Each structure stands twice: as C-alpha cells, then as structure tokens.
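Exercise: predict the structure of this protein bound to TUI.
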Amino acid sequence: MKTRITELLGIQYPIIQGGMAWVAEHNLAAAVSNAGGLGLIGGANAPGEAVREEIRRAKELTDKPFGVNVMLLSPHAEDVAKVVVEEGIQVITTGAGSPEKYMGMWKEAGIKVIPVVASVALARRMERCGAAAVVAEGCESGGHIGELTTMALVPQVVDAVGIPVIAAGGIADGRGLAAAIMLGAEAAQIGTRFVVADESIASDAYKEKIIKASDIDSQVTGRSHGHPIRQIRNQMSREYLKKEREGASFEELEYMTLGALRRAVMEGDVVTGTLMAGQIAGMIHKRESCKEMIQEIINKAEQLLGR
Ligand code: TUI
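Solution:
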C-alpha cells in the first residue's frame, strides 16, 4: 500500500499513531514504528526535558522513523518545539492550534511538519506555510475535537489542498482505512485502538473501559468554553457536564480535571479520571500487539481495495 505518505515518511504501511497524551510514550511509539507504521511520542503537557528523555528511549527501541506530536496548548510547547529540533526528529504532528510560529524553525531543520486540522480553512493555511501533509481529524476522535465528522471533513480537505491528507477520527480497522483511501486520504491516523495494545502503558482498567464500551458510551465535555473533549462516560464526565449546565466558569472546570487524564492512564482511576477515547471504542474488543493490529488492518484494507 504505497502512497505519498508512506514515501514521504519512509514507512511500510499508511498508518500513523495518534499523539495521545500520557499514552503515546516511547514503548508505544517504538512498537508502532517497528510494526511498519509511524509511531509518535505525545508531547502533551510535558516539559521539554521529559520529551527529550522519551525521544532518547524510543531511539533505543527502534531504528525506524518515529515522530513527536506537539500539543500547542501546552505551557511547554515552545520548549518542546526546540527539543525536537535538537534531537533530530524528522516528523512532527501538531494538535489543538496552529503551529505557524514554529514552522520557520522546523522547516529550516528539514523537519516534515504535519499539522492536525479540523477545518478546510486551517488546512489551506497550513499548506501555505509549508506543511508537508495534514491530518484531517473528525469529531469521532477521542480528546480535543472540532465540529465536522471525518466523512464530511476528509474529502473537503482533500479537494482544498495539494499536499497529502491523513484521515483521522473513527478509524480502527481495515474497513476504516479503505474508506479513508476512498475519500482521497493517503493514510489513516489511529488512536483509540492503540490504547489497548499490549505495548501501551495505559492502565488495565482504562483498557477494559475501552474494550467494554458500546457505540454510545462516549460524551463530549467542554463545549461551553470552546475546548470540547470526547471521553468515555463516567462519574467525572457526568459531574463535569452537570457543572457546565449550571454555568460553572472555565477556571472551575479546568481545576476539576487537573491531573484527571494522568489518573486514568497511569493509576487506573476510571471513576474520577478522564477516559479520552473515540466513538470507535465500541468496535474494539481485543488486546493485541501493535504488529497484530497493523497486519490485520492492512490485510483487510488491501482485500477491500483489491490490491
Ligand atoms: O489535539 C488533538 N487532540 C487532543 S489534544 C488533547 S490535550 C488537551 N487537554 C485539554 C484541552 C485541550 C487539549 C487531547 N486531545 N487533536 C488535534 C486537533 N486539533 N483536533 C482539533 C484541533 C484543532 C482545533 C482548532 C486545531 C486547530 C484549531 O484552531 C486553530 C486556529 O488557530 O484556527
């Protein structure tokens, strides 16, 4: 399955891993890259030096290309932006904002920048400022989301830009990858399925919540203050939505979720933790290695696409 994305990134299969906060650390990134996709270390809210350490550990586990996701709302985004250059990272994805202010520095270092976008307007702006590709991410995704669905967003972005497009949001198997290709995308970004991978350090309790989830078990919090987050319904999401309906301030809501994702991922607190996951969680029933997941996805997609 050769596409402009597999060529651009020097990878075997058109699958890239989501840059999920706390979950996308060196073990997962290296496992996805070793299985022929593009693994990513999620910078999330981590300080630059912590990301540097993750990069160095991933380098010990793989000699295949891997990238870093820079979460632009992070207070450490600027530091992380410099660390990735110093560490010789070749591919960056960005999320939750526009990476325009870092583009000059990254391009000068020869880095391929792949911003995650949720609209045609941002995709166009990213192409103009030198992005190598974009990830068009629909609101089926877990975590911070935009307004449009993958089905509506991906073909509109494909029509609007000349650079290759990676589809994201609601993709977890070979049917999803084949559908993404039919929409004009040249790879798929997959998040939620990799959370339950054997190599993922997410807590057993978090993985079980994804495996047991049904189609309607995710909820979106934070719409009232413009930072919508998709997650699996639990005590935390219900309390958050109740407070939101009662008109709680952004500060109060932020305070409530401090450390909540870390508690869910690292400590298995699935009651008061935040369980970010996409709508496709209802279709994920099995724990497997990244290699098994990727092989199955590729075999099915190739069969469907007649390749
Ligand atoms: O970034 C993500 N997913 C994320 S980031 C995250 S950590 C977080 N925690 C609390 C609040 C916010 C984030 C968890 N999940 N996906 C990529 C993505 N980017 N989805 C949507 C966007 C996006 C939205 C608006 C990108 C740019 C944008 O507007 C930028 C502009 O300047 O127009």
